[in-house]
Amino acid sequence: MANAPTGDGGRRIQAVEITLNLINVLQSEGQLGVTEIADRLDHSKSTIHSHLQTLEDRKLIVKENDGYRLSLQILNMAKNVRDQVGNYDVIKSQVDELVEETGEIVQFGIEEHGKVSYLYKATGEQSVETVSRVGMRQPMYSTSLGKAILTYLPEGRIEEIIQSMDFEAKTSETITSSTELYEELDRIEDNGYAIDDEENIKGLRCIAAPVRDGETVLGAISITGPSSRVTDDRLHGELAETVQRAANIIELNTKFS
Q1: Helix, strand, coil content of the chain in percent (nearest 5)
Q2: Domains defined for the chain, CATH in brackets
Q3: Half-sphere exposure (Cβ direction) of 105: Cα atoms closer than 13 Å
Q4: Tens of pLDDT along 50-69?
Q5: Three-state SS for 72?
Q6: pTM for the whole thing?
Q7: SS3 category, 234
Q8: What is the pLDDT of residues 79-117, one digit of tens each?
């Protein structure tokens, strides 16, 4: 079958889905052979080989020995996507400055497909490593970046995103209902910043401030550290002031760039 219906009444092209699934497999598992890919995607080797040949002809994958891997052309595509964010240089500069100032993890995220997507991440000398990485998407209800962005989206978009959420208790502190989330968004609007209090990863606390251009929210910037260092006083005092200041600098430089 060439295409199949989707839940929203549209149609999906099966061949495109196979290609994208193939790319996802190579992204997550690295170099694989035709048989391995066919087994993982539950398609015939002839079908997978045809897709691989097309991707190789377009220079998106490379054949090495008996396997295939993604090519560096993917990096070029990613760089072009990143450069389409008009204030990327300002964002990178502020994130790097916060890393030097705090020694913790600092990240910038934007909303894509109802989730927060990481645009840039930098780590300080004393920071602990997290699973987040550039390009990765995380739920908005359990991350400070996501909640900071969600608070300032248009009302209709907020409702649309929340209605589509499948709440999952990542820790005992995770928000697990739309009622809780709406209450949290009200608090964020009052405070001007959002907090992830061990809601996504036990032992980590994050604070984020939205970056806005008038009534439009461009994204959010966050600071993440272990709960042993990110005490209540530091979270609501020094770090709240620091992350809001950085957000304001990005806003001003974006406005006048």
Answers
A1: 45, 25, 30
A2: 3-74 (1.10.10.10), 84-255 (3.30.450.40)
A3: 22
A4: 999 999 999 999 998 889 99
A5: coil
A6: 0.78
A7: helix
A8: 777 766 668 889 999 999 999 999 999 999 999 999 999
